[in-house]
Amino acid sequence: MWVYKKKLSPFLLLINTNLEQISNDKLIKESDIDDITKYSLNSVFQWEPNQLNTIKVSNRFYQHFEDGESPLINTLTTIKRNNISIDHSLDIKDNWILNHIFQRQTYNRNYRETWNVGPEVGTIETDDLATEYLDEYEFTLNKKINLNNINVGMETSNGSYKSNRIGINKQYINSHSIFAQYDAHILNDYNVIMGLRIDKYSDYQYVYSPRIGFMYSHDKYWKFRTSWGKGFRTPSFMERFIDYDHSATFGYKVIGNNDLKAERSNGITAGVEYFHPTVYQVSLMIYYTEFVNHIAEYYRGNQEYSYHNINNTYKGIEIRGKWKASNQLSATWEINLIDNRYSNGSLIPNTQPISVSNRFSYQSPKYPFGISTNMKWTGSYTPSSHDIETGTWVKEDKDRSGYIIFDISGNYNFNNFTQIIFGIKNTSNYTNTKYGPFIGRSFYIELSTQLNGKE
Asked: Does a cis peptide bond (omega within 30 degrees of 0) precede residue 10?
């Protein structure tokens, strides 16, 4: 990683780039990917002509290469993604702030399969090209009234998608939205948030998504929260239009479904938090969400998969904690209890009902060295495997035992501008060829350099 930062009032220039190379004899078991190269270049130019205006121009470029070999097929995937945005913020009198941003996103993906054995050696079996263009504009107005906050705005976007996996080769999708939110503080101890969003997506009707949240603070240490809201998601371009034909190499096809309905959700949360300044924080949250027309993959016969709408519910409990022993030593932990079910009451396959994770971090006060550990334990559950011949989920005869994944990482600062980060992922080398994790123990090292870091 390389970082360059230069501030010369009223201008600011920031450039950072990152190169990542991953190589393994069998990095991802299912897809025969052996080498991955990732490259990114991000730049930001900011100009403040006066105290009321801020203009920011940014560009994010990402390139991704995947090479793989198998006994039959060699694969090459090339991905290019670019995002350029222009952001303008204006501080209007009477505590009004106007912000609007225009973004253009481009995406190109090329996937190629080439036979490496038999009479067709060197012949291209698959050569898929997909391109996407998306233009977005967002406008927001924000006003502060003492501790209260009003936020209103609109969004509009137009996208075009082209792929040789689409029957008519090119599709256009647009969306338009307006939204408003009021954040009110009442009698010092109460906070109420009310919001409404209205969306119109291409071929779908207008959708209204209300939200309301309430919080009560007690004795500066306790906070009690609850919220209710509705959500909405249109089928993605891939779910509607893209067709994947892997019958020659992997024995199956995935067919898009243009008749999919929009996914809707209705959820409620309730929680409590205890916060002791500078020492520790503990919180508990209970959630329940109903999905109507949830979009999921299904088997439709003859080794063909597609997408359909189903109804299900997600519910669970999250318990989190933070502990700051000192400025050098801190810890976090989390417990998740999950119960995800279809509308008929049956458990969604491979739902993991309980998991526990924690993280410890230590930074030496005398030496430019730090270390951190991450541990996640997943409890026992009954796994299910997907039978490609019948398209059904088949439960295993016995439960899968609980397992632990442990990571460790360190950092060393050579000076104010150069840092090296290194570590080991999955130190115990635990793998499961059927359900994952598929990648065993791996080592990594990263060098970060910042130039002109002092302003």
From this structure: yes
